[in-house]
Amino acid sequence: MLPPADYHMHTPLCRHATGEPVDYARRALAVGLSEIGFSDHSPMLRDNFDNWRMRYDQLDEYVEKVRLAQKEFPQLTIRLALEVDFLPGQEGWIRQLAARHPWDYFIGSVHYVSESWDIDNPAKLSEWKKRDAFEVWQLYFERLALAAESNLFEIIGHADLPKKFGIRPARDCRPLYEKFLDAVARTGCAIELNTAGLRKECREIYPSRELLEIAFRKNVPISFGSDAHAPEEVGLSFAEAIQLARVVGYNSSRRFEQRKSFLNEL
Ligand SMILES: [Zn+2]
Ligand SMILES: [Zn+2]
Predict the structure, then answer these.
(1) Which among 40, 44, 82, 185 would be 20 to 30 A from 192, CA to CA?
(2) How many angstroms separate the CA atoms of 82 and 35, rounded?
(3) 159 Cα–ligand 1 center, Å
(4) Please, are residues 160 and 208 in contact by the beta-carbon 8 Å criterion?
């Protein structure tokens, strides 16, 4: 049985990761993975939108870096992908990005609940104090449902990202998860088990067991990602993530090639 692919890793082009794709690939082989995928933060329509992603004119360089890793490690399957920020109204831009290269998959992520607030940005932690946590979660999950419904993505990234800093609403969030996952189930995309949450203040995989149980009930497929921003994070905590998936009932995950989905036994 093959270990699941690690489909979420970054490169220094996003300005907050270290190590070249070849270093991530070397690490992947060392920890026993047979498939990985690079999904660095995609460029935005405006290059000055924020400071934590590649510029549009670096997209070709990004693809070259991934191709170089593929050439150097032919024994490892290396997919070419992007983690794309979903902002309502940017669908045309995302389609434009999709047409630029033969991508294997797109991860659709919501970091921004408005044009100016990326909720996972530690530099903007004070924004949380100005708002009611439940309202932020509500806004976030509404956007995430729109991302799923856009049909632009194979995978929805770190589904309950708002828990990152450990700030949680007092109210029951299950109705938000239900609505979001209904949207996911309608479109057939997967959600990722992202182990980076274990390394953040929330100390928990994205998504929570509670959310994942609802996903399983609705037949939503899964993929796995370490969200590595350094080579030593490749495949990190995968045993824990696989365990969580199995406990909830999953016996398979998804692989992607040329934007087509394949089953991988767990
Ligand atoms: Zn990042
Ligand atoms: Zn992300």
Answers:
(1) 44
(2) 16
(3) 15
(4) yes
Nearest ligand, CA 109: 2
DSSP string covering 81-95? EEEEEP-TT-HHHHH
Q: Which residue matches tokens 């959600």?
A: 191
Residue matched to tokens 């399983």: 216
| Integer Cα distance of 110 and 84 in angstroms | 8
CA 173 to chain centre: 21
In tens, the pLDDT along 69-128 reads 999 999 999 999 999 999 999 999 999 999 999 999 999 999 999 999 999 999 999 999
| Preceding omega of 207 cis (within 30 degrees of 0) | yes
CA of 100 to the centre of ligand 2 (A): 21
The helix/strand/coil state of 24 is helix
Q: Give the DSSP letter string of 190-236.
A: EEEEEGGGGGSTT-S-BS-HHHHHHHHHTT--EEEE--BSSGGGTTT
CA of 14 to the centre of ligand 1 (A): 7
Contact (CB, 8 A) for 45 and 263: no
- The pLDDT tens digits for 237-265 are 999 999 999 999 999 999 999 999 999 99
